[in-house]
Amino acid sequence: MKLLIDARNLGSKPSGIGIYAYNWIKAFEENGSLEVHVIVDVIESAQIKELDLNGRVKVHCYGRTSNKSANIFQYFKYVKRLIEQVQPDIFWEVNNLAPIKIKNPYGKYIVTIHDMFPITMPECFGKIYPYYFKYGVAKTIKCVDAILYDSNYSKKETEKYFPLAKKKDSFISYIIIPPIPEMDVEEKDYFLYIGNLEKRKGTDILLDAYQLYVEQGGTRELILAGKIRENDIETRIKELDKKLPGFHYLGYIDDETRTRLYRECGCFVFPSRAEGFGMPIIEAMQCGKPVIASDLEIFEELVGQAIDMFEYRNDSNDSERLFQKMIEQDNLSDERDTKRVVNKYSADNLDKKLIDYLAEI
C-alpha cells in the first residue's frame, strides 16, 4: 500500500502536529509494510532531515515556506501535482484541512482533525484564521473518504460544529508517543513546562501562579521551553525573567535538551485551557515525573486519575488554584498508573491498528 502524507508542519521547527506526523511516519518506517511518501514545504528541521537522509521514506520538498496565507494555496497546487505523480492508495492530510478541493483518483483521501480551537477559542487565532479554518474544514470534510481523530473528545467536538462529519467513516487514532531516551542526569527539583507559549496553553496562568508561588515563599525554579506565540506573553516572560531569579526561559529547544529537561525536572506543569491531546503530559510520565495539569475533559480521557489536576474555571482564580497544587506537590507518582498510560500510546500498541484500518477503507 502506497501512502502519501502532507507533513508540511514537520519542515521547520515542528511542534504538536508536526511531531504527530513525524511519530506516525517513524512507526510506518519501522513497520515496513507501507511505501511512504512525505510532502513538506522545506527541509530544515532535524526530524525531516533524518527522514530524508535515511532514504526509507521518500521526501518531496516544495522548496518554500507555506506558513503565509498566499503561499499555502500555491503549496496545495504542488500537493495536487504530487498526487498525480505518486498515485497513492491513500493521501493523508494530517493538518486539519486543505484549503482547496483535493481528489485522489487513485485511492482514498483521509484527514486528521485535531481540534476545533479556532472556533471555540477564536480570540487566540487572530481575526482571519478562524474564518479560514471554518471554510477549510467544511470543504475538506466534504471531500474526504474518512476522518481520523486524536481522541473521542476531538470527534465529539468536530461533529458538533460540522454535522456532516457524522456521515463520514472515522477512526480514533491516538497519538504515538515514542519513549523518551534514557540519559544519565542528576535529578533536580524544578517545575518544567515544554510547549508553545500562548494563552490557549495557559502560559499566563502558569506565569501568574509561579509569581504567587515565589511571593509566598516557594523556592523551586521554573523552566519554560518552546516557541512564544503572543506578544503579551513575551512581555510577561521578560518581566519575570528580570524579577525572579528562579525563572528561566530557554526558547525553542532540540530533542537532546528536551530529554534532559524531562529527566531532570521534579514536576511537569501543563495548565492548558484547551487541548486536542497533550503529548508533553505523556512524555513527562514516561520519565516517571509527576504532572500537574488543568482538569480538561481530554486529559480525563487520556490519563484518567494518573496525574494531579487543578480546577480550571476560566476565571481570575485559576492561577491561585494552580499555585495551591504547586505548593502541595510532593514529587511522587504512581508507577502502576504511569506504566498503564504510557503503554497505551506506544507504537507497538497503535501502528498495526491504524494500518489495518487504512487497508480496510
UniProtKB/TrEMBL annotation:
CDD domains membership: GT4_MtfB-like (cd03809)
InterPro entries with a match to the protein in the record: Glyco_trans_1, Glyco_trans_4-like_N
Keywords (A to Z) from UniProt: Transferase
Domain Glycosyltransferase subfamily 4-like N-terminal: from-to ranges: 15-168
Gene3D superfamilies membership: Glycogen Phosphorylase B
Molecular function, one GO term: glycosyltransferase activity
Domain (Glycosyl transferase family): residue spans on this chain: 186-333
A matching Pfam family: Glycos_transf_1
Cross-referenced PANTHER family: GLYCOSYLTRANSFERASE WBBK-RELATED
Protein name stated in the entry: Glycosyltransferase family 4 protein
Taxonomic lineage of the native organism: Bacteria, Bacillati, Bacillota, Clostridia, Lachnospirales
